[in-house]
Amino acid sequence: MSFCSNFFGSSEIVAVSMFDNCPVNTNTAKAVIQIVNVIRDFQPKLMSYMKVLDGRNLILVGIDQWVFERDVERGFLGEAAAGMLVFPYVAVKGRDYLLKQEFALKKRLVLESLENLVLGFPELSDRIRIAPEYFMYEVILNRVRVFPPLAFCASNLTRNQETLIASVNPGYMKVLEQLESEKIVLFSENYVMISQKFISKSKNSRKRFLNLTRNAQRSIFTSVFEVFPQLLNFIAQNTEALLSQEKLSLKMEPDENRHFVDPQKFLFVPTAKGLVSLADKVSIESYARKILLKGGSGTVKFEPMGGVLNDVYLIRVNADQQGEKQVLVKRFKDWSGFKWFPLSVWSLGARAFSVLGRSRLEKECSMSEILRSEGFSVPEVLHVSHGERLVFMEFVEGENLSESIKRIAKSKGSSRFENDLSRIEKVGEIFASVHGLDVALGDTKPENVIVNPSGKIYLLDFEQASRNGDKSWDIAEFLYFSGHYLPPLNNERKAESIASAFISGYLKGGGDIKAVKNAGASRYTRVFSVFTMPAVIRAMSNACKKA
Predict the structure, then answer these.
(1) Predicted confidence band at 531 (pLDDT cuts at 50, 70, 90)?
(2) Are 407 and 419 in contact (CB under 8 A)?
(3) Which segment of 249-263, 307-321, 444-458 scores lowest on mean pLDDT?
């Protein structure tokens, strides 16, 4: 303090913090210590000075109080000056002041992290359970992302997790408690969840743009100023002339093992078997042997189940003395190039598809869990490997609804005809209930409806589902795709029967009649005219319009 007072002269020092930078071994004189002085009305506004004091290497930073507080409040310098507060530090002077600024900074960074989660996982954000440690590790790793030379420092800081959590995480807990009182987050057992109000507010292009500019701003100021604590080892390694003046000899071993904690380890999604971390990267084979066989003996078979745009397999496991287990697994690939082009042309003007494998995986998991929790019959999601883009789910035995439509196509008025029409009516009723949750299924081909041996109707495939989606598309796709199975001649009556049965069930289930009428519009009929006979489409379209 005596040295700082002498160095900065008569200027009033509001607060002094000490940060033992990137401690590999704090007992050695090679460790660099950062001293940040917040000074009232400081001219120049920002400066740094390197000094050896009592055998210890110091970086002395002076920053104007107004500049420091603007850096805390809105990242005026990209947190190049205030960023020290997210790491373990010692308040040498002005402890209350520094704690207040630390709280303000962490609150802003937590809010940014929540916004990034909403933008990064738009379909899962309302289902994600967040362990509080996530925010601490995400903030630290973000500083590495914008300036990779920080990797060495961050690695050393996160090596001792217990110490880091004990010293840094309490500040984040206080922030989360205040955000809970502001209805931004809510606590579910030991996890944090994002409120629907905050999600709705964060889902806009302006937020995405602001988040991108924040990272650009951090990168620029981090590179230009090179004064905040995490950069010191990088400076020490590359500014040999400056260091030789102060007789410093700090070195970083080129083969130093990096130790990082993946923040996604603390993000979890619910499944029928419990919470699964987003950091999970289990493969299909390891899931079969470790989870289904539980490390025991038995046979494993993988059977391709088709799928042009995704890889779908049925895992059959025969565990000794446990019988056979069957699990369906879907790998979500990105739709690009020739895979995506036919879809975009086919649905032009009527429907926009989710293309990225990651976003489709999110929709599958999120919507499946929502519908299951609301009492709908859907395959249980058993496990998610977000890193491998794999979803493991319950295999539902049964007949898909296209078989019912094929029987209607061949039928000549038998009782089976009526049984199959009653199934279609029930499906219409189920669709209406789903739409009542303000959820559109997105892909409603008859193949995505399974009737199990006991007659229970299951809905499948939610990778195109969404909130506030196009309900008329759901109706149109189901009807016009069903018409694909009808014979080319004298089929209008059966087309009308199928449409009438579905519409009757849909309206009986409380469906919106406007959605039905809109499904008869040309924007939808045009899309399906490629593979369904014009007379069939016309009959079904008229049934919708006259509902």
Answers:
(1) confident
(2) no
(3) 249-263
Separation of alpha carbons 479 and 117, rounded Å: 37
Q: Which of 11, 96, 100 is nearest to 62 (CA)?
A: 11
Token output for 9: 């002269």
Whole-model pTM: value is 0.77
Three-state DSSP at 329 gives strand
Residues 46 and 147 in one domain: yes
The mean of the pLDDT values for the chain is 81
User: Cβ distance 65 to 38 under 8 Å?
Assistant: yes
User: How far, rounded to the nearest angstrom, does the alpha carbon of residue 258 sit from its chain's CA centroid?
Assistant: 26
Instruction: Count other C-beta atoms under 10 Å from residue 256's C-beta.
Output: 12
Q: Where are the beta strands (DSSP E) in 94-184?
A: 129-130
Amino acid at 55: G
Burial readout 417-450 (b: 16 or more C-beta within 10 A, e: otherwise): beebbebbbbbbbbbbbbbeeebbbbbbbbebbb
Q: Which two tokens stand for residue 349?
A: 């003007």
Q: Are residues 83 and 197 in the same domain?
A: yes
Q: Which residue has the higher pLDDT, 377 or 201?
A: 377
Tokens for 342? 């036919």
- Number of other residues whose CB lies within 10 A of the CB of residue 135: 27
* Amino acid making up residue 480: Y
The pLDDT of residue 296: 76
| Owning domain of residue 318 | 280-394
The pLDDT of residue 228: 44
User: Scanning the structure block, which residue is given the tokens 């008229």?
Assistant: 542
Gap between the Cα atoms of 347 and 340, Å rounded: 11
Q: Between residues 360 and 176, which one has the greater pLDDT?
A: 176
Give pLDDT tens digits for 444-485.
999 999 999 999 999 999 988 988 889 999 999 999 999 989
Residue 152 within any structural domain of the chain: yes
Distance CA 327, CA 329 (A): 6
Q: Domain with 485 in it: what CATH number?
A: 1.10.510.10
347-382 pLDDT, tens digit per residue, is 444 555 556 777 888 889 989 999 999 999 999 999
> In whole angstroms, what is the distance from residue 314 CA to residue 302 CA?
6
**Largest Cα span, the chain:** 102
Q: Which of 289 and 27 is assigned the larger pLDDT?
A: 289
Amino acid letter at 529? S
Helix, strand, or coil here: 237? helix
Question: Residues 392, 382: contact at Cβ < 8 Å?
Answer: yes
C-alpha 133/C-alpha 491 separation (Å) is 62
The verdict on whether omega for the bond into residue 44 sits within 30 degrees of 0, i.e. cis, is yes
* Axis crossing angle, helix 133-146 with helix 95-120, rounded to the nearest 10: 80
Q: Is the backbone of residue 247 left (phi > 0), alpha (psi -120 to 50) or beta?
A: left
Question: What single letter denotes the amino acid at residue 407?
Answer: R
Whether the CB-CB separation of 179 and 107 falls below 8 Å is answered with yes
Does the structure show a pLDDT above 50 at 233? no
Is residue 224 domain-shared with residue 322, that is, in the same domain? no
**Together in a domain, 260 and 407:** no
